[in-house]
Amino acid sequence: MGRVSGRSCIVTGAARGIGRAIGEALLDEGADVCFADINGESLMAVEEHNRDRADRNGGRVTHAVVDVTKRDQVRTMIAHTVSVFGKLDVKFNNAGVNRPMNFLDVTEENWNFIMSVNGLGCLIGMQEAAKQMISQKTGGKIINTTSIAGRQGFDNVAPTAHRRLV
Ligand SMILES: NC(=O)c1ccc[n+]([C@@H]2O[C@H](COP(=O)([O-])OP(=O)(O)OC[C@H]3O[C@@H](n4cnc5c(N)ncnc54)[C@H](O)[C@@H]3O)[C@@H](O)[C@H]2O)c1
Question: Which of 25, 66, 72, 151 is least enclosed by beta carbons within 10 angstroms?
Fold first, then answer.
Protein backbone atom coordinates (compact mmCIF):
# COMPACT_ATOMS: atom_id res chain seq x y z
CA MET A 1 0.00 0.00 0.00
CA GLY A 2 1.51 3.33 -1.07
CA ARG A 3 1.40 6.60 0.84
CA VAL A 4 -1.32 8.01 -1.46
CA SER A 5 -3.21 4.87 -2.43
CA GLY A 6 -6.79 5.66 -3.42
CA ARG A 7 -6.11 9.40 -3.82
CA SER A 8 -7.26 11.06 -7.02
CA CYS A 9 -4.66 13.54 -8.28
CA ILE A 10 -4.34 15.98 -11.18
CA VAL A 11 -0.90 17.25 -12.17
CA THR A 12 -0.72 20.03 -14.78
CA GLY A 13 2.29 20.59 -17.02
CA ALA A 14 2.68 16.81 -16.83
CA ALA A 15 3.59 15.99 -20.45
CA ARG A 16 7.27 16.31 -19.53
CA GLY A 17 9.78 17.60 -17.01
CA ILE A 18 8.95 18.14 -13.35
CA GLY A 19 5.19 17.59 -13.80
CA ARG A 20 5.66 14.23 -15.46
CA ALA A 21 8.09 13.18 -12.70
CA ILE A 22 5.59 14.27 -10.03
CA GLY A 23 2.80 12.28 -11.70
CA GLU A 24 4.97 9.20 -11.95
CA ALA A 25 6.09 9.51 -8.32
CA LEU A 26 2.43 9.71 -7.27
CA LEU A 27 1.69 6.56 -9.31
CA ASP A 28 4.61 4.82 -7.56
CA GLU A 29 2.86 5.64 -4.28
CA GLY A 30 -0.43 4.08 -5.43
CA ALA A 31 -2.36 7.19 -6.47
CA ASP A 32 -4.79 7.60 -9.37
CA VAL A 33 -3.22 10.26 -11.59
CA CYS A 34 -4.55 12.50 -14.36
CA PHE A 35 -1.61 13.84 -16.39
CA ALA A 36 -2.78 17.21 -17.78
CA ASP A 37 -1.05 19.46 -20.29
CA ILE A 38 -1.62 21.69 -23.29
CA ASN A 39 0.56 19.29 -25.33
CA GLY A 40 -1.93 16.54 -26.12
CA GLU A 41 0.32 14.46 -28.34
CA SER A 42 2.96 13.90 -25.65
CA LEU A 43 0.27 13.23 -23.05
CA MET A 44 -1.03 10.18 -24.94
CA ALA A 45 2.50 8.69 -24.87
CA VAL A 46 2.86 9.53 -21.17
CA GLU A 47 -0.40 7.75 -20.33
CA GLU A 48 0.58 4.75 -22.43
CA HIS A 49 4.04 4.61 -20.85
CA ASN A 50 2.58 4.71 -17.34
CA ARG A 51 -0.20 2.14 -17.63
CA ASP A 52 1.99 -0.69 -16.28
CA ARG A 53 3.27 1.54 -13.49
CA ALA A 54 -0.32 2.25 -12.41
CA ASP A 55 -1.27 -1.45 -12.57
CA ARG A 56 1.78 -2.47 -10.54
CA ASN A 57 0.92 -0.04 -7.77
CA GLY A 58 -2.85 -0.47 -7.67
CA GLY A 59 -3.63 2.94 -9.16
CA ARG A 60 -5.17 4.25 -12.34
CA VAL A 61 -3.98 6.68 -15.01
CA THR A 62 -5.72 9.05 -17.37
CA HIS A 63 -4.90 12.28 -19.17
CA ALA A 64 -6.56 15.59 -20.02
CA VAL A 65 -5.60 18.15 -22.63
CA VAL A 66 -5.95 21.57 -21.02
CA ASP A 67 -4.84 25.15 -21.33
CA VAL A 68 -4.62 26.18 -17.68
CA THR A 69 -5.40 29.81 -18.58
CA LYS A 70 -8.88 28.83 -19.81
CA ARG A 71 -11.40 28.33 -17.01
CA ASP A 72 -13.81 26.25 -19.10
CA GLN A 73 -11.01 23.84 -20.03
CA VAL A 74 -9.90 23.56 -16.40
CA ARG A 75 -13.48 22.73 -15.39
CA THR A 76 -13.66 20.08 -18.12
CA MET A 77 -10.36 18.57 -16.92
CA ILE A 78 -11.66 18.33 -13.35
CA ALA A 79 -14.99 16.87 -14.51
CA HIS A 80 -13.12 14.27 -16.57
CA THR A 81 -10.95 13.30 -13.59
CA VAL A 82 -13.99 13.01 -11.30
CA SER A 83 -15.81 10.92 -13.88
CA VAL A 84 -12.87 8.49 -14.15
CA PHE A 85 -11.64 8.39 -10.51
CA GLY A 86 -14.84 9.38 -8.67
CA LYS A 87 -13.43 12.42 -6.86
CA LEU A 88 -10.53 14.89 -6.67
CA ASP A 89 -8.15 14.80 -3.68
CA VAL A 90 -4.98 16.49 -4.94
CA LYS A 91 -4.52 19.29 -7.47
CA PHE A 92 -0.93 20.05 -8.43
CA ASN A 93 -0.70 23.34 -10.35
CA ASN A 94 2.66 22.80 -12.00
CA ALA A 95 2.23 24.08 -15.58
CA GLY A 96 4.53 27.04 -16.12
CA VAL A 97 6.43 28.89 -18.82
CA ASN A 98 9.45 31.12 -19.07
CA ARG A 99 10.90 33.29 -21.84
CA PRO A 100 13.97 34.93 -20.31
CA MET A 101 14.61 38.54 -21.40
CA ASN A 102 16.84 41.21 -19.94
CA PHE A 103 14.79 43.36 -17.59
CA LEU A 104 14.87 46.54 -19.70
CA ASP A 105 13.80 44.57 -22.79
CA VAL A 106 10.76 42.85 -21.24
CA THR A 107 7.69 43.59 -23.35
CA GLU A 108 4.02 43.60 -22.42
CA GLU A 109 3.60 40.52 -24.60
CA ASN A 110 6.36 38.67 -22.72
CA TRP A 111 4.95 39.75 -19.33
CA ASN A 112 1.35 38.87 -20.19
CA PHE A 113 2.25 35.47 -21.64
CA ILE A 114 4.24 34.42 -18.59
CA MET A 115 1.80 35.87 -16.07
CA SER A 116 -1.20 34.31 -17.79
CA VAL A 117 0.16 30.79 -17.35
CA ASN A 118 2.18 31.16 -14.13
CA GLY A 119 -0.16 33.53 -12.31
CA LEU A 120 -3.70 33.37 -13.73
CA GLY A 121 -3.35 29.65 -14.49
CA CYS A 122 -2.59 29.01 -10.84
CA LEU A 123 -5.49 31.16 -9.64
CA ILE A 124 -7.99 29.37 -11.87
CA GLY A 125 -6.51 25.98 -10.97
CA MET A 126 -6.81 26.65 -7.24
CA GLN A 127 -10.33 28.07 -7.47
CA GLU A 128 -11.79 25.28 -9.58
CA ALA A 129 -10.10 22.52 -7.55
CA ALA A 130 -11.29 24.12 -4.30
CA LYS A 131 -14.88 24.29 -5.60
CA GLN A 132 -14.78 20.56 -6.39
CA MET A 133 -13.21 19.69 -3.03
CA ILE A 134 -15.72 21.81 -1.11
CA SER A 135 -18.61 20.16 -2.94
CA GLN A 136 -17.24 16.71 -2.05
CA LYS A 137 -16.94 17.69 1.65
CA THR A 138 -13.75 15.61 1.84
CA GLY A 139 -11.08 18.30 1.94
CA GLY A 140 -8.05 17.97 -0.30
CA LYS A 141 -4.61 19.32 -1.09
CA ILE A 142 -3.76 22.06 -3.60
CA ILE A 143 -0.07 22.49 -4.39
CA ASN A 144 1.57 25.08 -6.65
CA THR A 145 5.02 24.75 -8.17
CA THR A 146 6.87 28.03 -7.65
CA SER A 147 10.41 29.17 -8.39
CA ILE A 148 13.50 30.29 -6.57
CA ALA A 149 13.04 33.40 -8.76
CA GLY A 150 10.12 34.31 -6.49
CA ARG A 151 12.60 34.75 -3.63
CA GLN A 152 15.68 36.04 -5.34
CA GLY A 153 15.93 38.52 -8.20
CA PHE A 154 17.54 37.55 -11.51
CA ASP A 155 18.24 40.06 -14.26
CA ASN A 156 16.53 38.12 -17.07
CA VAL A 157 13.40 36.63 -15.50
CA ALA A 158 11.45 39.62 -14.16
CA PRO A 159 7.95 38.18 -14.83
CA THR A 160 8.93 34.89 -13.24
CA ALA A 161 10.19 36.74 -10.18
CA HIS A 162 6.67 38.14 -9.70
CA ARG A 163 5.00 34.79 -10.07
CA ARG A 164 2.91 32.81 -7.69
CA LEU A 165 1.96 35.70 -5.47
CA VAL A 166 -1.51 34.14 -5.24
N1 LIG B 1 13.12 23.65 -14.54
C2 LIG B 1 13.49 24.63 -13.74
O3 LIG B 1 14.70 24.92 -13.55
C4 LIG B 1 12.46 25.44 -12.99
C5 LIG B 1 12.86 26.42 -12.11
C6 LIG B 1 11.92 27.16 -11.42
C7 LIG B 1 10.58 26.89 -11.59
N8 LIG B 1 10.20 25.94 -12.47
C9 LIG B 1 8.76 25.71 -12.64
O10 LIG B 1 8.48 24.33 -12.49
C11 LIG B 1 7.39 23.97 -13.34
C12 LIG B 1 7.78 22.82 -14.25
O13 LIG B 1 8.97 23.17 -14.91
P14 LIG B 1 9.65 22.22 -15.99
O15 LIG B 1 11.10 22.53 -15.99
O16 LIG B 1 9.21 20.83 -15.80
O17 LIG B 1 9.02 22.87 -17.33
P18 LIG B 1 8.79 22.24 -18.76
O19 LIG B 1 8.85 23.37 -19.73
O20 LIG B 1 9.68 21.06 -19.01
O21 LIG B 1 7.29 21.68 -18.67
C22 LIG B 1 6.21 22.56 -18.52
C23 LIG B 1 4.98 21.88 -19.08
O24 LIG B 1 3.90 22.81 -18.94
C25 LIG B 1 3.12 22.73 -20.12
N26 LIG B 1 2.37 23.97 -20.31
C27 LIG B 1 2.83 25.18 -20.72
N28 LIG B 1 1.83 26.05 -20.82
C29 LIG B 1 0.69 25.38 -20.47
C30 LIG B 1 -0.67 25.77 -20.39
N31 LIG B 1 -1.08 27.02 -20.71
N32 LIG B 1 -1.56 24.87 -19.99
C33 LIG B 1 -1.17 23.59 -19.69
N34 LIG B 1 0.10 23.18 -19.75
C35 LIG B 1 1.02 24.06 -20.14
C36 LIG B 1 4.11 22.49 -21.25
O37 LIG B 1 3.50 21.93 -22.40
C38 LIG B 1 5.10 21.54 -20.58
O39 LIG B 1 4.76 20.18 -20.79
C40 LIG B 1 7.01 25.23 -14.13
O41 LIG B 1 5.96 25.89 -13.46
C42 LIG B 1 8.29 26.04 -14.05
O43 LIG B 1 8.05 27.42 -14.21
C44 LIG B 1 11.09 25.19 -13.18
Answer: 151
